[in-house]
Design goal:
The protein is about 55% helix and about 10% strand. It contains six helices and three strands.
C-alpha cells in the first residue's frame, strides 16, 4: 500500500497526471462488513483524506443481473449501494467522532452520498471461457 501511495504522489509531482477516480471493487456476495473492509476503508480515508469521497467509485462484483435495467437499479443496485453508503457513514462517525450538528460532517455526508456506484457480475470461470483479448463489452455466444 505504501509503495502504491508513494508512486501516486510521485506521479502527480512529476507531471500533469493526477488521480481522477479511486475504484473500490467489492464482492457483493459477501454481505457482512468484515474487518478487511473496515481496514481498507480506513487506509483509503487515511491516504486520501476528505477528498476520498469526491473521487471514489464503488463497483460491486457478483451482483445478480436481470434483463430489466430499471428493475435491476431499483431492486438490486440501489439497496446494495444504500447499505454500503450507510456502513461508510457509520465508519466515519466511529473513526472521527463526528457530531450530527457539525457542518464539516454534513459536507462529508454529502460527498459520501455522491459516491459513484456500479454493479457487475464477472465470475472468473466465465472469463476463462472468453476468447483472448475479447473486450468484456463485446457480445459472445457459446455453441
Amino acid at each position: 500500500w505504501n509503495d502504491t501511495m508513494n508512486f501516486l504522489v510521485n506521479m502527480s509531482k512529476s507531471g500533469p497526471d493526477h488521480v481522477d477516480r479511486i475504484v473500490w471493487v467489492i464482492n457483493a456476495a459477501w454481505q457482512r462488513a468484515t474487518a478487511a473492509r473496515t481496514m481498507i476503508l480506513r487506509e483509503l480515508r487515511r491516504s486520501f483524506g476528505l477528498h476520498l469521497y469526491k473521487h471514489l467509485d464503488l463497483v460491486f462484483n457478483f451482483l445478480a443481473h436481470g434483463p430489466n435495467k430499471t428493475a435491476y437499479d431499483k431492486e438490486v443496485l440501489e439497496p446494495t449501494r444504500s447499505k454500503f453508503i450507510e456502513w461508510i457513514q457509520e465508519q466515519e462517525i466511529e473513526l472521527f467522532n463526528w457530531s450530527n450538528t457539525s457542518s464539516i460532517w454534513h459536507g462529508v455526508q454529502k460527498q459520501i452520498n455522491q459516491t459513484g456506484c456500479y454493479g457487475v457480475s464477472i465470475h472468473p470461470g466465465y472469463l476463462k471461457k472468453l476468447p483472448p483479448k475479447l473486450p468484456l463489452s463485446a457480445p459472445h455466444l457459446d455453441r
